[in-house]
Amino acid sequence: MKIIDAEGTILGRLASYSAKEALKGEEIIILNSEKAIITGRKENIKEYYESKRKRVGSTLKGPKVSRSSEKIVKRTIRGMLPNYRDGRGREALKRIKCYKGIPLEFKDKEKITLKDKFKTKGKSIKVEDISKK
Fold it and tell me: What CATH number does the domain located at 2-55+65-131 have?
């Protein structure tokens, strides 16, 4: 079981690392998912997520894009898995858990941080800023 602290890590790199490890059979737990970073211009990123949310259709149909930060992170990981609806992609997605903050059961456990490997420079926005209204 790998416990990853997402604070300050780039969302795409976190997602690809988590997807690879889950496909290998590892249990992945992501903490502080609201503090992951998406690089790029803030206006473009916010506009992209708002346009995804507006493409719904009627109240009963269409893809619903969640506002919660842990679901945004999990959906990004899902995009990096092969065929998340069945087969090994579905099994890998079941092995991934995302949490907002740090639950008490993982407070004293050893955590992996990916921000040492990947440094951001320039413009970025946190996932919690996207999940706000």
Answer: 3.90.1180.10
- Cβ contacts of 90 within 8 Å, gap of 6 or more: 83, 84
Boundaries of every domain in the chain = 2-55+65-131
E-assigned strand segments in the chain = 2-5, 28-31, 37-39, 96-98, 112-113, 124-126
Note the pLDDT tens digit of each residue in 65-117.
778 888 889 999 999 999 888 889 999 999 999 999 899 898 888 888 887 55
The alpha carbon dihedral of 80, 82, 83, 89 has a sign of negative
Q: What is the model's pTM?
A: 0.83
